[in-house]
Amino acid sequence: MTITLKEVTRETLRTICKLDAGDGATQVAPNAVSIAEASFYNEAWFRAIYNDETPVGFVMLYDPTLAEKPEEPHFFLWRLMIDQTYQRKGLGRTAVKLLIDHVRARPGAEKLLVSHMSTVDELGRFYGSLGFVYTGAEDDGEKVMALELQPLARMQP
Known about the structure:
- Helices cover 23% and strands 32% of the residues.
- The protein is an alpha+beta fold.
- Strand 4, helix 3 and strand 5 form a beta-alpha-beta unit.
- It is globular and about 35 Å long.
């Protein structure tokens, strides 16, 4: 099993849009909505999540460096979805770890934020197991968590 984050292309767009978290879109927006929203934000970076050659999910990141806001050191995991067929197999965890590595390599990255609905404690436990901690803040009724980043170049062996 090799998890990768790949660019969504014209050839893969429909397949990625058909992926479904199985939550009735109550916890995460459909991928088509996310991709449409990303077209209006220069700071949106998104990728399909693949298990070997099989698309299994989607991730979208707020990256201030893409909008020429290098003074803003906070990145935000806007969307993470794994198709219901592939959930609870560690794919989301691996994808978030890849995303964390990607963000660490971005200029000036100090913190990666994420939020989740206050009624979904399972997501808090999931992100907590990856090192995120609650900030005490809320964003549009969602609990905000943060992961302090140490750039790859400065990490100790």
